[in-house]
Amino acid sequence: MSALIYGANHVITESEKIALHFNISSFVIGATLIAVGTSLPEMAASVSASLQGKTDMAVANVLGSVTFNISLVLGIIFLMSKELSPQRDLFRNDSAWSLFPLLIFILMAYNGEIDRFDGFLFLLLMGGYLLFLSKDSKNLENEIDKNLKKEKFDWKKSLIFLAIGFTFIIVGADYTIQSASEIAKNLGVSEWVIALLLIAFGTSLPELVVSVVAAKKGNADMVIGNIIGSNVANFTVVLGASALANPLSISFAKNGFDIMCASISTVMLVFITANKLYNRSAGIGLLIIVLLMISNAF
Q1: Which distant-in-sequence residues (6+ apart) come within 8 Å of 265 by Cβ?
Q2: Sign of torsion over alpha carbons 272, 203, 105, 101
């Protein structure tokens, strides 16, 4: 798990350097790389699980990550912060993108499978999200690591660190899935439960770290924007890539509660942004969802 996170950090940092070198917009550097970059562990773990034929683990990892990202990460942020006041109108500009991928996921999964064509459509949806965000690129300046601009760009160094990062991600993902399968067998629980809780929590750590740092700096827009962007990436890029690797099976009868947890977390996020409830009361409500998901798993 630590290899996944370590590799993701390297990929994010070096990708930002390359983007800066080519004068790519602040939107691409901040929103895209941070949101998609912190979802790299989820993508690596889910794609690896899909390639190994463990499609239950691929889907469970995404559902668990979405629930952890919203309920656990934001719950902790709201509890530790006295008050968050985003300058951006997150409800008007961004909240719909929390619901779109979820609703499309439910529609696709209704017949019990997310096939390769569905995976392609998910990736297409991510393209639509990026086009939507590109109109607001000027509002994302605070999400860039200003220290990177001071560093002299070195192609050789960046490519080496990118290679190291991707190696750690691939090896770490494969090892994580194999270890999780062994843990599931030894504990006598399903691989779905292990992926839903253990892997999903571990791969959500980058979002937690980024959000805590942003909250301490008073950057409320980045805190919630990172969660929304990461969840869009989880459904579109992670599930999309996993479905392209191998069609994903899902059962509403068996996994309906976990789908409901991800759905209710998303609806609560929309409600919070609509009413600007960025406070400890909302944090407690979000954490209750996590506790219910964990208790139901066992």
Answers
A1: 66, 67, 70, 71, 286, 289
A2: positive
Farthest CA pair distance, the chain: 55
Q: What is the pLDDT of residues 168-201, one digit of tens each?
A: 755 665 566 667 667 777 888 888 888 888 888 8
**Model pTM greater than 0.90?**
no
- 34 Cβ contact list (under 8 Å, min separation 6): 12, 143, 210, 222, 226, 229
CB 195 within 8 A of CB 57: yes
Enter the tokens of residue 258: 């976990």
- Which structure tokens are listed for 30? 């901040």
Q: Which domain range does residue 133 map to?
A: 2-297
pLDDT for 24 beyond 80:
no
The identity of residue 289, as a single letter, is I
When divided into structural domains, the chain yields a total of 1
pLDDT at 152: 63
Q: Residue 248: helix, strand or coil by DSSP?
A: strand
Cα–Cα distance for residue pair 84/72, rounded to 1 Å: 16
Classify the C-alpha dihedral 122-123-124-127 as positive or negative.
positive
3-state SS, residue 249: strand
| CATH number for 208 | 1.20.1420.30
Please check whether residue 243 is in contact with residue 119, taking contact to mean a CB–CB distance below 8 angstroms. Answer: yes
Beta strands in the chain (DSSP E): 113-114, 248-249
Q: Which residue has the higher pLDDT, 152 or 271?
A: 271
Give residue for tokens 């301490």: 216
Sign of the alpha-carbon dihedral angle for 284, 288, 294, 298: positive
* Higher-pLDDT residue of 60, 14: 60
Mean pLDDT of the chain: 79
pLDDT grade for 23, boundaries at 50, 70 and 90:
low
pLDDT at 260: 96
